Amino acid sequence: MTIRFVCLANSIKEGGRCLAGIELNNNNDAIIGINGPKWIRPICKTQHGKIYTHWVTHIKLLDIVEIELTGFPAKPSYQSENVFFKDEDLKVIGRFDRRRLHDLCDNHYYIFGNWAKALSTQEIMHLDHSLLLLNVSQFGITEKTYPDNPDKKHLRLHFLYNETNYDFPITDPVFIQLYTNNADVLTGIKNLYLCISIGINFNDWYYKLVAGIISGSS
């Protein structure tokens, strides 16, 4: 079965990429269910479901992508969006109008049920999704280094959402490169659309990530 989605994340994931977006119908309108937009995360039968980077380097955020759906993971998890697809068959068929993103944003008060940077193994058991889209107007970038690799800078986005301050790692490789080339890349930008994802288990915690950054108005 062929399905299409608007790409909202093409992020770094354990040596590969994590591709994700909201499913569209044949008129390129978002498919909306009881709990909001229907998210899709195509995965491969690789460790952690990563997609090979060279399969998706041609895909940009807001591209409309078609895949051939081949099945679903047998084991249910918080990553309920995961689907298997025909290998390498990722076709870009158009572009999605960013002005339509506002209607696809999440409206829950907290991000994945709490205000923290991560979820515990107990909390993750009660979660049935791992992707959402936010619209934020107060934000900034911080750089962080770690003792094991002090020369490498890790970018984090801090932002205000529903009167709560958040601070998550950025895994959007295109934005990371843009910021590396120009640290003032967000100057004059009034709002951002953020694809927020939940990573895999790391030391019994599931960290929240900024997997895609799309500028709104300037």
Helical content band: under 10%
The description of the largest β-sheet is:
5 strands, mixed, barrel
Estimated structural class: mainly beta
How many β-strand stretches?
14
CATH topology of the largest domain: OB fold (Dihydrolipoamide Acetyltransferase, E2P)
Number of helical segments with 4 or more residues: 3
The top-level CATH class of the largest domain is: Mainly Beta
Describe the structure.
- The strands form 4 sheets. The protein has a 5-stranded mixed barrel with strand order 1-2-5-7-6.
- The radius of gyration is 17 Å and the shape is globular.
- By secondary structure, it is mostly beta strands.
- The longest helix is centred in the last third of the chain and has 9 residues, at 173-181.
- The mean pLDDT is 93.
- The chain is 8% helix and 51% strand.
- The chain folds into 2 domains: 2-99, OB fold (Dihydrolipoamide Acetyltransferase, E2P), CATH 2.40.50; 108-215, OB fold (Dihydrolipoamide Acetyltransferase, E2P), CATH 2.40.50.
List the helices and strands and how they pair.
Layout: E1 2-13, E2 16-24, E3 32-33, E4 36-37, E5 39-43, H1 53-56, E6 63-71, E7 82-95, E8 118-120, H2 121-124, E9 131-136, E10 139-146, E11 149-161, E12 164-169, H3 173-181, E13 192-202, E14 205-215
Parallel strand pairs: 5-7
Antiparallel strand pairs: 1-2, 1-6, 2-5, 3-4, 6-7, 8-14, 9-13, 10-11, 11-12, 13-14
